[in-house]
């Protein structure tokens, strides 16, 4: 899925935030920003809510707990052999396994959720990406065509970008 | 450039600016850190050769043991656990500080963690990789090692989940998986930064590892949450893993092992040895790569304080053990601890007490904490002391187990020594590859605490003070 639009790169954080805020006020809702580090001002300007990754963590963790207890209990009952005079179902001893499985499944689900939600891996080369975005510059991409494109270009240029480019975003 | 007193900065940035006063621009971070990934010099190749020799020694000795059988080690009755298990616990302990620094200090928002955590995390991953080999070496017939894993088999046999040794399999493999994933996740943005600057083979490698990361708002948003939750999961994990390792001992009834204090005692010891090892590794890296602006005295001071704190916890645990032995009035328990101090292995116990209890007390002095050579020397002592701590716990207890006629003496054989010494080569082998191939300092996270470039020197986003416009370059 690729959208065409305009990309501007900025040297300064405040210019970027100003540009994003103005774009959002002018009705551009699908603004994409690039930065080399997690910048909360940008996230705030774009108005992010809760990330669904937390649900992945919770569901993964609970699945792990269930798997840990379930598997240890089931495999004990599969051949109910008394070892060391302990009950066949020694749940306290299985807590350790269940705990480790909780962490393992929770962690793997978190990473999976992060990959799916942030659309990674993404191997399609983006026309509008600048290697400087991973160094220190900030980027703002606005998907737009026709008169919208002209409006977006005006707003982006107003905040003194280092450069603007038009192309497609993957 | 914003200063540390700028009203517009977040708390983290203000503290970060104080921790790295000489780093001003975000581009500088990329330049200084990615520079480390350039072609290695003679010194690196020399160390790499040394490490590779260690690997050869380790696998050569292990091959010999596989060929001749476990009899080539000094393990016998009554001491069935010796240098291998000692070294296993040692490396698992080393591995702990990585997750401590990357996860626990992340949750506590410690301002000095950013520049050190990548190295500590790499140390964790390679530490567990080294530790994980030792149970395999120790079991002797390594080709049966897969019996530890629960898999459906024709005899309907499952592992005994009541056994601490099976818990350990789960704990260590989970720890390895989660710490590798955590290490990888944190590295994705940095690999993208490396990709954007690299050429040729490295570009392909970094492109593959970074999976098309572009640093969009959506990616950062989910990344931030995933990182937070992973840190929250890794924190109880790190505490559980060394507790489970300690239960390998504490769940038995061997005098000297059967103690409830073992779990916290082992966790503190693990953090103690791990942070010491981070200092040992960070000192030469800082020197060789000229990272003085990123690893300042402030960082070393903070780590030294952590070493001092955990040293005192560990020493307190030693004293508790001796006290409980005396207070219990149990003759076997009493003789056990008397034997530790004055028996056959008295020297190992005294090395442990001096290196872990006494030497770190020099860190009370600020001058010592601020002297890099002194820190390096002290942490070497700690590394030695912590290996001997595990040796003392394991070997002295087994050699004086129950009935006096069954007491015995254990002496590591040449094969065992070869494997133990070689394991340091194996660890260094991976670590040396790491510092040349992957960014050893977290680029993106450092930028988070370095004040961003602002057009307006201060004030909120509303004030539009006039700044001369620069000509937009090209369309």
Commentary on this structure:
The complex is a heterodimer of chains A (170) and B (475). Chain A is α+β, with helices and mostly antiparallel strands and 170 residues long. Chain A has two domains: 3-50 and 124-169, Alpha-Beta Plaits, CATH 3.30.70; 53-117, no CATH class. Chain A has five helices and four strands. Chain A has helices at residues 13-25, 40-46, 53-78, 91-117, 146-158, and strands at residues 3-10, 32-34, 138-143, 163-169. Chain A has a four-stranded antiparallel sheet. Chain A is rod-shaped and about 80 Å long. Helices cover 68% and strands 0% of the residues of chain B. With 475 residues, chain B is an all-alpha fold. Residues 1-5 and 459-475 of chain B have low confidence and may be disordered. Chain B has helices at residues 11-19, 26-34, 42-68, 83-107, 114-138, 164-197, 200-210, 217-250, 262-289, 297-328, 331-342, 346-358, 366-369, 372-399, 414-437, 443-448. Chain B has one domain (46-153, 167-442). The chains are: A alpha+beta (170), B mainly alpha (475). At the A-B interface, helix 1, strand 2, helix 2, helix 3 and helix 4 of A face helix 2, helix 6, helix 8 and helix 16 of B.
Q: Count structural domains of chain B.
A: 1
Please trace the helix and strand order of chain B, writing H or E for each element: HHHHHHHHHHHHHHHH
Shape of chain A: rod-shaped
Helices of chain B, by number, come to 16
Estimated radius of gyration of chain B: 25 Å
Helix content of chain A: 40-55%
Average pLDDT number of chain B: 86
| CATH architecture descriptor text of the largest domain in chain A | 2-Layer Sandwich
């Amino acid at each position: 899925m690729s959208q065409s639009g305009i990309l501007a790169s900025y040297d300064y954080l405040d210019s970027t935030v100003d540009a994003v805020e103005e774009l959002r006020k002018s009705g551009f809702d699908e603004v994409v920003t690039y930065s080399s580090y997690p910048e909360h001002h940008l996230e705030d300007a774009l108005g992010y809510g809760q990330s669904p990754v937390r649900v992945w963590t919770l569901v993964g963790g609970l699945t792990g707990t269930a798997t840990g207890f379930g598997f240890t209990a089931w495999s004990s009952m599969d051949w109910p052999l008394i070892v060391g005079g302990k009950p066949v179902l020694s749940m306290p001893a299985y807590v350790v396994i269940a705990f480790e499985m909780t962490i393992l499944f929770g962690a793997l689900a978190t990473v999976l959720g992060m990959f799916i939600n942030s659309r990674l891996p993404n191997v399609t080369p983006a026309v509008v990406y600048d290697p400087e975005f991973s160094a220190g510059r900030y980027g703002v991409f606005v998907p737009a065509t026709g008169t919208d494109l002209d409006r977006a270009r005006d707003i982006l240029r107003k905040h003194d970008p280092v450069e603007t480019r038009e192309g497609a975003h993957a | 450039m914003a200063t540390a007193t700028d009203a517009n900065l977040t708390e983290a940035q203000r503290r970060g600016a104080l921790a790295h006063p000489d780093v001003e621009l975000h581009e500088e971070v990329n330049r200084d850190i990615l520079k480390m990934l350039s072609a290695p010099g003679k010194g690196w190749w020399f160390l790499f050769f040394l490490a590779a020799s260690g690997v050869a020694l380790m696998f050569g000795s292990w091959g010999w043991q596989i060929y001749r059988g476990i009899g080539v080690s000094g393990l016998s009755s009554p001491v069935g656990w010796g240098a291998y298990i000692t070294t296993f616990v040692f490396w698992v302990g080393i591995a702990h500080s990585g997750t401590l620094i990357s996860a626990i200090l992340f949750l506590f928002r410690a301002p000095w963690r950013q520049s050190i955590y990548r190295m500590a995390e790499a140390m964790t991953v390679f530490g567990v990789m080294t530790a994980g080999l030792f149970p395999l070496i120790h079991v002797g017939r390594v080709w049966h090692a897969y019996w530890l894993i629960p898999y459906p088999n024709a005899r309907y046999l499952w592992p005994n989940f009541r056994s601490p040794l099976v818990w350990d399999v789960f704990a260590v493999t989970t720890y390895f998986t989660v710490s590798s994933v955590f290490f990888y996740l944190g590295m994705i943005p940095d690999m993208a930064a490396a990709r954007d600057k690299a050429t040729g083979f490295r570009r392909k490698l970094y492109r593959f590892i970074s999976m098309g990361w572009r640093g969009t708002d959506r990616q950062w948003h989910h990344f931030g949450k995933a990182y937070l939750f992973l840190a929250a999961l890794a924190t109880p994990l790190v505490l559980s893993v060394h507790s489970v390792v300690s239960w390998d001992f504490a769940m038995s009834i061997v005098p000297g092992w059967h103690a409830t204090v073992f779990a916290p005692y082992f966790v503190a010891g693990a953090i103690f040895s791990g942070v010491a090892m981070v200092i040992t590794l960070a000192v030469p890296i800082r020197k060789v790569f000229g990272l003085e602006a990123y690893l300042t005295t402030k960082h070393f001071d903070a780590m030294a304080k952590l070493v001092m704190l955990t040293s005192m916890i560990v020493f307190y645990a030693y004293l508790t053990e001796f006290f409980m032995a005396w207070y219990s009035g149990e003759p076997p328990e009493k003789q056990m601890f008397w034997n530790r101090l004055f028996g056959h292995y008295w020297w190992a116990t005294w090395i442990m007490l001096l290196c872990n209890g006494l030497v770190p007390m020099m860190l009370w002095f600020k001058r010592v904490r601020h002297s890099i050579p002194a820190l390096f020397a002290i942490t070497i002592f700690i590394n030695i002391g912590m290996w001997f701590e595990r040796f003392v716990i394991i070997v002295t207890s087994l050699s004086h187990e129950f009935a006096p006629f069954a007491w015995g003496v254990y002496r590591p054989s040449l094969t065992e020594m070869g494997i133990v010494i070689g394991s340091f080569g194996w660890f260094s082998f991976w670590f040396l590859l790491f510092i040349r191939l992957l960014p050893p300092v977290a680029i993106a996270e450092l930028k988070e605490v370095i004040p961003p470039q602002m057009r307006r020197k201060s004030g909120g986003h509303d004030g539009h003070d006039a700044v001369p416009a620069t000509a937009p370059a090209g369309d």
